[in-house]
Amino acid sequence: MAEDLRSAVASGARAFTANADVALVIEQYARGFVKAFSNLQTQCPGLVNLFYSGFNWDDEQGRTMLEALKYAVQHGEFPDGYLAINFIKSNNFSEEMKATFRRMNTTAEFENKIHLR
């Protein structure tokens, strides 16, 4: 996301009052993104599952999602326990990509933070 925004500003596709604000905007977006995932249960009591199903995502979108989730896990505390994210079954991921998602569930990185389904 950060690189996309920097590129858009550089190309003129996006503009800010002062283009130097792009770093501040990226920081704010990143902070909001991490908070949305790591504190979801605090923000939405009783919600422990997110569903990203039926979007017809392929492996490229799966890799993007996985990188985004890794970022959230690396920067978030997840004080409410793990968050289940349901998106493996109802998209168009290859069996190899599905196996990659399942392997992430067994890593110390994702333990007690995010569980991919």
Please describe what this structure looks like:
There is one protein chain. Helix content is 50%, strand content 9%. It is globular, with a radius of gyration of 16 Å. It has a three-stranded parallel β-sheet with strand order 1-2-3. It has one domain. With 117 residues, it is mainly alpha-helical. It contains five helices and three strands. Helix 5 links the parallel strand 2 and strand 3. Helix 1 runs antiparallel to helix 2 and helix 2 packs across helix 4.
Shape, principal axes of CA atoms = globular
CA gyration radius, whole angstroms: 16 Å
Protein structure class: mainly alpha
Could you tell me the number of beta strands?
3
Domain module tally: 1
Low-confidence blocks of residues: none
Proportion of beta-strand residues: 5-15%
Please outline the major beta sheet: 3 strands, parallel
Which strand order do you get reading across the main beta sheet?
Answer: 1-2-3
> How much helix is in the residues?
40-55%
Q: How far is the first residue's CA from the last residue's CA? A: 24 Å
List the total number of helices. Answer: 5
Series of secondary-structure elements, N-terminal to C-terminal: HHHEHEHE
Oligomer: single chain
Instruction: Name the average pLDDT.
Output: 89
Give a quick rundown of the structure.
This protein is mainly alpha-helical and 117 residues long. 50% of the residues lie in helices and 9% in strands.
